[in-house]
Amino acid sequence: MANQRIPMETEKTLVMGNVAMSEAAIRAGCRFYAGYPITPQNEVSEYLAQALPAAGGVFLQAESELAAINMVFGAASTGARAMTSSSSPGISLMQEALSFIAAAQIPCFIANIMRGGPGLGNIDGSQADYFQATRGGGHGDYRLIVLAPWSVQEMYDLTIRAFDLGDHYRNPVMLLADGILGQMAEAIEFRELSPHDKPVPKDWALTGCEGRKPNVIQTLYLQKKDALEAKNIELQAKYDRITRELQLSEACDMEDAEIAVVAYGTPARIAHWAVKKARERGIKACLFRPITLWPFPALALRAVAVRCQKLLVVEMSQGQMIEDVKLAFFGTDLRPRIDFMGRGGGWYPKPKELLAEILEVAKR
Amino acid sequence: MNAEEKTIRPGRMHYCPVCGHTIAQRIIGEVMDELGIRERTIGTAPVGCAVLLYDYFNCDIIECPHGRIPAVATGIKRMRPDNIVFAYGGDGDLLSIGLAETIHCANRGENITMIFINNAVYGMTGGQMAPTTLIGQQTITTPKGRMATETGAPLRICEMFETLASPVFIERVAVHDAPHMQRAKQAIRKAFQNQIEGKGFSFVEVLSMCPTHWKMGGKEACQFVGNEMAGYFPIKKFRDADG
Ligand SMILES: Cc1ncc(C[n+]2csc(CCOP(=O)(O)OP(=O)(O)O)c2C)c(N)n1
Ligand code: SF4
Ligand SMILES: [Mg+2]
Q: Quick one: which of A61, A65, A63, A117 has its CA closest to A94?
């Protein structure tokens, strides 16, 4: 699959998550990719090395992730749709540039196909970069929009959506997927998704100043005393707007539920199965699945907690998203019991383990 | 907005007296005017004393993370091959923190113009040792003078580039007196001309004064470039694919 472009008019096709995401990027109009090899996302560069030039775009294997993200900074600053992909250690190397890109409000797309950490960790799937993705990662007051697919179809759909959101909000967007989603193959529809908005004019882009005043992309605000704080306030107003407008999530089997499993990515798939099994045993469980990790869908989670007094947070980490789950109830009267089940080091929660945990929580 | 407007905006630059940045930037501006490319040009501002370059240049500019100018310039040029892209950076920027990006950019033969300001010191952060600080030269982080046994010998990037196949133009110039400024202008002009003609990576190293952190008067600083720096960094054309 990696050496051939997926034809336009296919019905359902079996593809890997990494390939679905790559093809989605091309269909979203991405015309620049730079990246550096790292497992488990090498299929992205293998696919794009062939398919992106064929689509009239530029593919570059960069000398490092530092160079890759800065090439994307340059390409995206001309108004082009541009992306990079990597996995955890490589994403760590990109943090300084992500801070610059967010500060300069340059839309671009970054995929983190997470592997186990810290350090070199291992090459199995993980969700241990949640803090890094949602808390900034780099220096300064800034936010990335973070999208979390749970299927190969969503690797495709959310990638297209990511480019639209980036342009709409003038913000970098990260797709945060565990390595299992990148490596897994599923039959998906390569559907045309209409942009959620009209094409956004990029009057800030660097194109040469003929017929207009020069455009300057800068992140230094040294000269006037209040200039940087004014910039911080401007950015925060945008982040507040995104928080109001873009909390995406999905809930399954919520109607009569008493226990909610809260999970994203691969653990959400496992939880989906476990919730069904628990229901067969008379436990009124449901699944709540954040799709945006930043902004975290706190409002929808509160609605869930109005019914469910017990929440079970499941992650492929030692517990990171659980902090946002707890924060969602801060300042409200809701006091659900919050339990945690996590697997780390490249492991995912086994379906039966998770089912047993739900049954256990039901007894508490 | 028209072609009559000059590249360098009227008014003073903020650099210290006799700083090499002022001279180099005025030369770049003159060359851009003569070639009529101001409205097609996208420049990069480095993290260093020249970070406010966009206050002086009347063209599109992007301020890059420290050391990443060659990568940012690569992304711009690949997306906008018909624009003229110049990369401008100091010795800390291009030869220390960004050395990998600089060499790979040259080795890929990106069709850009790179101007490298070698002032043998980190100007902006207060005069620390640079990769190009001369042996024996005192800086605030080499108070007894740079010793090769401790920190290696100064990096000669033109000589390193000579080992690469891709660059089409490599020249080292200086700006400490009028004849050298003239030669510097010719080199910079050629480095832009090459890009306009699609020839490939063109590189000009400019030996530059930093009287402030060398703790010298202007005249003494110019002599330091002509005698000490030029002694270790030969002023010459290393490569011109046009012969
Ligand atoms: C990642 C990072 N590290 C360090 C700095 C601090 N810093 C700013 S300018 C500079 C050195 C500038 O020296 P040079 O590139 O030689 O430029 P000059 O000021 O001499 O023209 C450093 C280390 C920074 N801004 N970013
Ligand atoms: S400190 Fe040195 S490099 Fe910086 S402006 Fe002054 S003379 Fe120029
Ligand atoms: Mg310097």
A: A65
